[in-house]
Design goal:
Layout: H1 3-29, H2 36-48, H3 53-65, H4 67-89, H5 95-126, H6 129-133
Length: 142
């Protein structure tokens, strides 16, 4: 592969990662009161980016049904991230407090993922087999 193609692919990879992180960041730390639609839409894209439109809409509907719990989980993740930053900046530094803050962050991220995964699972379970067969196979690197 020529050097120009390598650079072009690297630029595309960086842009793709930036867009994905922006979308995830928008979902996690969006406004003070994220809308039901925004949470559902970005979580559905993150969970089923290459799934058929009807299935993505079903996932969005499941996420909207759980929007209160998901919103609270997102706020919990944001609060835990703040606690990690606070522990990192503390003087005197306390490794135990940082470890506890990281543990809380992991717990809250896991809880948020459980909520999203449960919504995806309900939508996929209710989808007809023909719709599930339309889910694209993973791309290389997925």
């Amino acid at each position: 592969m020529s050097r120009h193609w390598s650079i072009a692919l690297l630029v595309l990879l960086v842009l793709s990662l930036a867009v994905n992180f922006f979308g995830l960041g928008f979902l996690v730390v969006g406004g003070e009161h994220p809308s039901d639609s925004r949470i559902a839409h970005f979580a559905a894209i993150a969970a089923l980016g290459r799934a058929p439109g009807a299935l993505r809409h079903a996932v969005e509907n499941e996420l909207r049904a759980d929007h209160g719990a998901i919103r609270d989980a997102i706020h919990g993740v944001r609060d835990a991230r703040r606690a990690v930053r606070t522990a990192m900046r503390a003087e005197p530094f306390d490794q135990g407090k940082l470890d506890a803050a990281f543990a809380m962050l992991r717990q809250r991220v896991d809880h948020m993922q459980e909520l999203v995964h449960a919504a995806v699972g309900r939508a996929v379970a209710a989808a007809p087999a023909a719709e599930r067969r339309k889910i694209a196979p993973p791309r290389r690197g997925d």
